[in-house]
Amino acid sequence: MRFLVFNSKGGCGKSLVTREVIAAPVSENMVIAEIDELNQTQAPYADRFKKVIQLKRETVKDLLIHLNEHENIVIDVGADNLSATLQVMVEYSLFEDIDKIIIPMGPGRSDSENALKTYNATKDHCDDILFVFTRSDPDVPIQEQYPVFFNNAKKLIPDLSDDQIVTISESDIFIDAQHQKKLVTELAQEVDYKSSALTAKKQGDTEKFRELMQHELNKRAAQLLIKNTIKPAHDKIMK
User: Fold this and answer.
1) Of 4, 22, 119, 144, which has the fewest beta carbons less than 10 angstroms from its beta carbon?
2) Alpha-carbon gap, residue 54 to 76, rounded angstroms
3) E strands along the chain, which residues?
4) Closest by alpha carbon to 135, among 115, 157, 105, 97?
């Protein structure tokens, strides 16, 4: 599958959705192409994926090569390159090689408004477009959390279905993983921190005990995040 993760608003979760939700569950087979000269958010994770490609505005047209070279690739477009990327993709007919467009958004008004603008700008180039609602609360109906989006979507997308809606629960584990330059899947790996912590406790090393138990807690939280949020979202996007 070939994905384009796109929203004309920065800070809406594009890089997180690209890396943690779409790519990480199939990391060995997934290529990430990042168009973000300023931040290069995906660069620290290059060894976790089949390949991480860094593109500049001047080399966006090279996507034609990458999209046809790799069967599984996701394109993460940085906020500073959105207009230029869209222009090149239209001029070089690159949307012909895109299977799905993923539009992430946070809970703010501007995120929702820009998500709809992004949909309007891309709907004529791709038939399969999904909206990913990041930082959502699983206990509150998504329509109540994103009223600006759903109120305006009725006019622009009257046939919007549940199949086009993906939710990502807010979690500190995403932040912890990013700070450590690790994937959530790495934090969730089966490591017996508890036994090591109890050993440290017997030895009277309270500080080490607490540190290892915190790792154990984070591991379990990461496992739950994968089970309840990342995997369901990944499976829905990959359909």
Assistant:
1) 144
2) 10
3) 2-5, 31-35, 51-55, 73-77, 100-105, 129-136, 165-169
4) 105
Predicted TM-score (pTM) of the model is 0.93
Q: What is the pLDDT of residue 39?
A: 77
Class of domain 2-170: alpha beta
- The tokens describing 237, both together, are 């996007």
- pLDDT for the residue numbered 204: 97
Which of 113, 118, 174 minimizes the C-alpha distance to 149? 113
Query: What does the angle CA 26 – CA 31 – CA 34 come to, to the nearest 5 degrees?
Result: 125
- The span from the CA of 84 to the CA of 134, in Å, is 25
Q: For position 57, what pLDDT does the model report? A: 85
Residues of the chain with pLDDT under 70: none
Query: What whole-number distance in Å separates Cα of residue 70 and Cα of residue 120?
Result: 28
- The contacts of residue 11 (CB under 8 Å, 6+ apart) are 79, 106
What are the structural domain ranges in the chain? 2-170, 172-239
- Write the DSSP symbol of residue 17: I
Residue 9 is predicted with a pLDDT of 72
Token digits of residue 108: 């703010």
DSSP 68: H
| 91-124 pLDDT tens trace | 999 999 999 999 999 988 999 999 999 999 999 9
SS3 (DSSP) at 7? coil
Choose among 216, 159, 181, 175: nearest CA to 41: 181
Predicted confidence at residue 84, as pLDDT, reads: 86
Whole-angstrom distance, CA of residue 33 vs CA of residue 189: 26
